[in-house]
Amino acid sequence: MSALPGFLVTKEEEELTAEERRKLERKLKKERKKKEKQLMREAGISTKKVEPKKQSGSELALAYLTRWSENPEEWKFQKTRQTWLLLHMYDKEKVPDKYFTILLDYLQGLQGGARDITVQKAEAFMKEFDGSDAEDPNLLEKCERIRQVLQLLS
């Protein structure tokens, strides 16, 4: 007869079936854990598990781009990361300059529909910005990035 450590086995428990014994052991274990948690709370020790911080889409996409650049053997294509990069490549805050130069290299290998759509969107952005006379520095930087992408892919 196996009993949980620290618990005495009574004659009644010895006569239990295997299933009943497992249920009792689980119940006793649950009660023991509950008591341990209560003691830890009273001692002021946190019982909550700390969840590791999940990376944002931005961090994951930039790490993907870096891996493509620095470690091509271990790089694996991920459509969601590529899509994020293509959607946010003109935003200097989301894709800083040091990553944008890597992204331009990455875009050289862009194929098929993704390449066509990227060119179409860039051309549409250029038409939109050509119509406006804004001297906003962020807008000018965005236009410059669009120009670089169009020059590369056209």
Short note summarizing the structure:
The chain is mainly α. The chain is built from seven helices and no strands.
Provide a descriptive summary of the structure in words.
With 154 residues, the protein is mainly alpha-helical. 67% of the residues lie in helices and 0% in strands. It has 7 helices and no strands. α3 packs across α4 (79-88). The longest helix has 26 residues, at 18-43.
Key phrases:
single chain; 154 residues; mainly alpha; 7 helices; 67% helix; 0% strand; elongated
Number of helices: 7
Shape type: elongated
How far do the termini sit from each other?
A: 78 Å
| Biggest sheet architecture | none
Rg value: 30 Å
Helix content: 55-70%
Topology:
Blueprint: H1 11-14, H2 18-43, H3 57-70, H4 79-88, H5 97-108, H6 112-131, H7 137-153
Helix pairs in contact: 3-4, 3-5, 6-7
